[in-house]
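Repro:
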Amino acid sequence: MKRNISMYSLLLILGLIAFGCASIMEGGKQSLPIDSTPPGAKVRVVNTRTGEIVAEGTTP
Protein backbone atom coordinates (compact mmCIF):
# COMPACT_ATOMS: atom_id res chain seq x y z
CA MET A 1 0.00 0.00 0.00
CA LYS A 2 2.78 2.42 0.94
CA ARG A 3 4.58 1.61 -2.32
CA ASN A 4 1.44 2.46 -4.33
CA ILE A 5 1.16 5.86 -2.65
CA SER A 6 4.82 6.59 -3.40
CA MET A 7 4.37 5.57 -7.04
CA TYR A 8 1.26 7.75 -7.46
CA SER A 9 3.04 10.67 -5.82
CA LEU A 10 6.01 10.29 -8.15
CA LEU A 11 3.75 10.13 -11.21
CA LEU A 12 1.85 13.21 -10.06
CA ILE A 13 5.06 15.19 -9.55
CA LEU A 14 6.45 14.13 -12.94
CA GLY A 15 3.17 15.08 -14.61
CA LEU A 16 3.18 18.52 -13.00
CA ILE A 17 6.78 19.11 -14.07
CA ALA A 18 6.03 18.05 -17.65
CA PHE A 19 2.99 20.32 -17.97
CA GLY A 20 4.83 23.20 -16.29
CA CYS A 21 7.67 22.99 -18.78
CA ALA A 22 5.23 22.83 -21.68
CA SER A 23 3.50 26.03 -20.59
CA ILE A 24 6.84 27.85 -20.23
CA MET A 25 8.05 26.68 -23.64
CA GLU A 26 4.84 27.78 -25.40
CA GLY A 27 6.10 31.35 -25.90
CA GLY A 28 4.52 33.75 -28.34
CA LYS A 29 2.05 36.54 -27.70
CA GLN A 30 -0.90 35.99 -25.41
CA SER A 31 -3.74 38.30 -24.42
CA LEU A 32 -4.56 39.12 -20.82
CA PRO A 33 -7.89 40.89 -20.30
CA ILE A 34 -7.88 43.36 -17.40
CA ASP A 35 -11.01 45.01 -16.03
CA SER A 36 -11.19 47.55 -13.22
CA THR A 37 -13.69 49.56 -11.24
CA PRO A 38 -13.55 52.50 -11.72
CA PRO A 39 -12.27 52.43 -15.30
CA GLY A 40 -9.05 54.19 -16.28
CA ALA A 41 -6.64 52.36 -13.97
CA LYS A 42 -3.00 52.39 -15.02
CA VAL A 43 -1.58 48.94 -15.79
CA ARG A 44 2.11 48.04 -15.93
CA VAL A 45 3.60 44.60 -16.62
CA VAL A 46 7.13 44.27 -15.24
CA ASN A 47 9.64 41.47 -15.83
CA THR A 48 10.55 40.52 -12.26
CA ARG A 49 13.94 39.14 -13.31
CA THR A 50 15.20 42.23 -15.10
CA GLY A 51 12.92 44.97 -13.78
CA GLU A 52 12.12 45.90 -17.39
CA ILE A 53 8.64 47.29 -18.12
CA VAL A 54 7.22 44.90 -20.71
CA ALA A 55 3.87 46.63 -21.30
CA GLU A 56 1.91 49.65 -20.07
CA GLY A 57 -1.61 50.89 -20.58
CA THR A 58 -4.89 51.94 -19.02
CA THR A 59 -8.08 49.97 -18.57
CA PRO A 60 -11.14 50.94 -20.57
